[in-house]
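Students often ask why we bother predicting the structure of a whole assembly rather than each chain alone. The short answer is interfaces. A chain on its own may look different once its partners are present, and contacts between molecules only exist in the joint model. In this exercise we take two input lines together and write out one structure for the complete complex. Read the inputs first and try to guess which parts will touch.
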Amino acid sequence: MRRAKAGRPNQPLYFLANVRGTSWFHRLDPRTKVAYLAALVMIDLLFLDPRFLLVVFLTTVPIWISSRVDLRPLLPQITAVGITLLSLMLFIFSFSGAVGTSGHVDPGQDSIPLGPLVFYPASFDIGAVQLLRMGIPMLTSLLVFATTDPTAFARALNKLKVPREISFMMVTALRFFPLVLEEYSNVSQAQRVRGAKPRGPIGRLRFFYRMSLPLLIVLLRKSRDMGIAVESRGFGARRWQGTLRTLTLTRRDHLFLAVVAIGALIALYVRFGLGLGWSWVI
Amino acid sequence: MAAHQSDARSERRGQTAEPLVQVRNLTFKYPYEPEPVLREVNLEIFPGELVILAGPSGSGKSTLCRHLNGVVPHLSAGEILSGQVLVKGADVARTPVHEMALMVGMVHQNPDSQLVCLEVRDELAFGPENIGLSHAEIVERVEQAIDWVGLRHAADLLTFECSGGQKQRLAIGSSLSLLPDLLVMDEPTTDLDPVGAHEVVATIKALRDELGLTFLIVEHDLDELLEVADRLIVMAHGTVLYDAPPATLLNTHYEQLEAIGLRIPQHIMVARRLSTQAGIGRQFSIRRQDAVRAFGEWAARSLPRITVGTSLDNGTTEQSQPLATEAPAVQLDDLCFSYGRSTWTIHDLNLTVRPGEFVALVGSNGSGKSTLAKLMVGLLQPQRGSVRVMGMDTGQLPVEEISQRVGYLFQNPDSQLFNTSVAEEVAFGMRIRKAAAGDIERRVSEALGLLGLEGYRERHPFSLSRGERQRLALATVLVADPDLIILDEPTTGQDRKTLDGLIGLMEDWIRRKQATVVMIAHDMDLVCRHASRTIVMAGGRIVAEGPTAEVFQRHYAALADLSLIPPPVVEMSVSLVGVRLPKVLLSIADLDRTLSAREA
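Now the answer. The structure tokens for the assembled complex follow.
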């Protein structure tokens, strides 16, 4: 059999499968999660020593575990984050080492050639730091989005004074996503049953070029319909006052925020009080 | 015409009330159209009425609907050349859309394009939040709307987890949560399977009975709605041709309505035939129950009891017959397919389709019909078992090769048109397969001639009307001279004329080329009229299959359980099989033959 593999789950918003969880992290107010993310980014930027950043990363592990998130729906996103980080690390390994941690070219370093790439000992250190600095917030953001209903998240943003139009756009884009996927699949299949096959880079470009017009037209029509549906339900009144779900910070939120604040204070003390974590290992 | 309008007014419920909607001499033109799409339209809608707006595609129905809540002219390009629209006395052209939303709710054809939130309750709260209600009021409106549209059991779902019918009811609920006086629905059941369509119609009936809500509904499929409607307004070429209670209009202008392509419900066709040909009363009822009863009474009086040895061949000669001697067109053996979930989408399926057959695949959404069709053309590969189409193993060959002998017509023609001219569009498949230039030209001309598109060779495909685009999409299939054609729900959004033309072409193609057609369909009337064989699917399995008459006769109750409601003539005749009829009647043509036989 030529290609007897199983099809992908045809649920377009499969990555939202974790939203309905009941763990303590799921039940946190979205504003608490936003505050946690902000604190984590701040702590992340305090350190240059990868060992300290590793400790920061390790503090997120119990949260991942206790939130009981099913990783399968998130695999495409985790893979995307992984590929981004690995590409970044490879880039930094091969290009930043020669410059060195001091910011000046250090011709005295031993180079490690690998095919067309040349690595330096310092570059591994820089790469690890950047990997952790970017990886910690990216993965934690993934956890936050996987465990938060996007509508509730949008409401939290409204509470944080983000204009309703912007938060609404975010939710609508998410709702529009399955329609885009469905139409992409239809148009692509319609080409294939008429004999078109994307062969080679030029062939692929032609294939996608041919798809662009019907895809654009169908999606424009759908977005027009969605726009009409939105306006037909009073969106233009812009008189937002009450909401269906009121966001309230519970004892759980206060407790978690206190832990986050203590963590941030400890990080600040270590960095500025003890003067640790800002120097490179080498 | 004026006479019919005055009839309508005199029979209207609540005739002393002020009209809720007044459309006065409305003439409207889109900037890209040479002629106005609405011409001097006049109509009134009174509180509590259920009004059906019908007419062929392009008659201006949707544009008129959009005038009622102000989407036209506020959010759409175009010019009101004359006249005005008043809702509760407010001039729509001078009232913002968000204010109109409090008076007029709007539900569109595709539920997916109108749901904007991820949770059912949030969707229902969207409108009330926009207009600045308090938390307590929003909660009250949401819970009220959930009950009105019967979504209590689905209230905690995410919107994309809902079935098609639930999504459309949710769209209705989200309009109702603004407590509008009028609900305008533009083809609300067109994109739904029979289960979903039935749910939506039941919801409309319940809302009308319980809330006394006013409705204006644009719909092609009038089977269930017409008998509960107060008025039927028929439009053509941008004008209102008729406006009267449905029973009055159908009794007085039946031929005219048929001539403009209105899909007249089959039970009404039966009632009229009994009235005119069998001489049962001068006026006929438009209620399905009455038609069924009238047919039963006529049959008891006029059809002799069948005795042993009696043969009354009422034939179904319009249906295609298989060529039993040839190799199968489609052969499925122990076929299994899954989209990666724990359950099979297609499960242990065995099937043989012979050349020359016109096969209908029927079933609710999720029954596996479309997946099976895609397996037949090689867009999906089986995980177990095999699919052989015209002798080709689809698991071994690429789609491009299979598609040289198998044509696939998608539900939406717009998904399959991507060239810059009609001629290029039709030639595309042949060019990509490097056919000779002369051969391409000849075959393109043939295909365009067959579909009546010769005059459009240089036009851009997207400049054609919906019906013409559907014919163009079919031309792109036929140009390859396929032995097997798969039609994926060709009925969606088509008026009766376009649909009959398309299916007529398929039948002609089978006769001329000995080809095979597999059609996925929700329209049971269409299936009964044209399919030589019917395959009923549920849960990825074939639950019934055989000659169409046999399937509808033997599995009548099972089909009804799957919400695949057989056409009225089947319902009328199934209990008479073996008693007064040799076999079940499938179509009006069958009924005509029976009536003619009795007259003879």
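Check your guess against this: Chain A has eight helices and two strands.
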